């Protein structure tokens, strides 16, 4: 019996990146007894891919492509629209990939095979980051250590995912992204709840996608803003799940420590920079990152939104 697989992509004001993403998806190896289609959700007040533009993209692909529009600005709104759009095509499986990524030809084949072999409902794979410009020397790139395929995971991002449609179907778990998390962590929160509901989630070590990192995303201000956003959304997520009191008991002491040692490291780094530039800068920015995390946690406790995703990197 043939099974249906829908790949969902959310996008906003990055037509060139989206076209590269779709070109790569069109080159996927289609697993036996499987049909693949793609849904794209534009998260913008006015969609770009309409009329002739949409028709031209569709004409250039052999894979069925469907465009949808979500005018409410915010990642969880777009992700939920992507899930709803995917469900319209009665899929057995739904894959999620970002518009700034390109899948390797065997991406879906690897994820689907792993799910079938390990009896899993969610598979998450690695992202190989391609930098337009190297990040600063003091920045620690997020490198995931290799893990055997089939390793159980308890959370996941949405940048490389295959999941059973049962998780979101009305006659299944009926899960959705929390639309209060408009400034980050909505994907981690979603898959934590998937895990809590008993779905088996696994890592697939050789199902790669590549992510393009524009130069604008590795400027000092942008990197520090990302740290602040992640800390803000992380704390706010705990407020939503465990209540403000429990979140405060956890994050206030943590924030105070981060800000105290961050301030100390920043001052020391600043003082030694004239004598040992690289070492001084590393300590200085380590301190700033700690300050961003500490202040971000406090911001999240107060439920104040962050504007990191208001800025769009790439084209």
From TrEMBL:
Taxonomy, superkingdom: Bacteria
Domain Glycosyltransferase 2-like: 7-151
Pfam families with a match to the protein in the record: Glycos_transf_2 (PF00535)
Transmembrane segments: 259-276
Xref: Gene3D superfamilies: Spore Coat Polysaccharide Biosynthesis Protein SpsA, Chain A
InterPro entries: Glyco_trans_2-like (IPR001173), Glycosyltransf_2 (IPR050834), Nucleotide-diphossugar_trans (IPR029044)
The protein's name: Glycosyltransferase, GT2 family
Lineage: Bacteria, Pseudomonadati, Pseudomonadota, Alphaproteobacteria, Hyphomicrobiales
